[in-house]
Prior knowledge:
By secondary structure, chain A is α+β, with helices and mostly antiparallel strands. Chain A has 2 helices and 7 strands. Chain A has helices at residues 23-33, 48-60; strands at residues 3-4, 17-20, 63-64, 70-78, 87-100, 103-114, 119-130.
Amino acid sequence: MTVSLADLPKGHEFTETRLNLTPDWAAEYVRAVEDEAIEAVSGHSYPPLALAACSIRALLDQAALPEGAIHVGQELSFSLNRDTEWEVVARARVASRGERQGWVLMGIDLSVESESGAAMMSGRATITFPVSGGPAG
Amino acid sequence: MSQRTEEMRTYRVGDVLPAVTKTITQAKIKRYAEASGDHNPLHLDPAFATTTQFGGTIAHGMLVLAYVSEMMTAAFGQAWLRGGRFKVRFRGAARPGDRVTASGRIVRDEGGKIFCDVECRNQADDLLVSGDAEVRVR
């Protein structure tokens, strides 16, 4: 049974996930977000938020969103070279957790590196959910 | 002062970036859920979503944010992909049927690092996303 994010304390480190990005994955993401700009940039087949999406996917494979969870903020920085890195490593950590007026505010640090260790993306997702939130759905 | 991107566009402080407009549909939300792996029922299950504060399904925040990124890619090309950064807050929900416009304005230039205010609004001018973005163009 997948644990809920609601059960995780500050400092919790998610298991590192190795992702094999493929051209099919890139095309599916670009279709989903209807990005008409990326194909005009030579040597790039996916936009930076695709990395954020797959790092969040890796996180959600390990911990379910609590019922009523809302994404309230996002910080991201990225450094994408031409498409030479298709094997990447995603990491995530509960960086902050606080409660106020019946709601939990949780910051989750996300990062994606190439297999060779080069930083490709880092950032923080901030979510909020009711204190008593169980898994969504 | 003006800066040139690799695409040889010239931008100055105060310039408005070319906006990106998309229409949200439930099918697009479903497609994004498949691509991202985020199957939160708030986005996909109308019966569940009607029981929430939103009263219906809403788009993933990261889908709406992707429109901001597309705007920045179109404006700054490789420079955005090689070293972009942004920080936003999700202020409102985008719903099926909404026409969402991502827009931005250059507010500062610090020696080749350009800072922009960015936002997304729906057809009713409700603010959905606001924040700032930066990109080094030289």
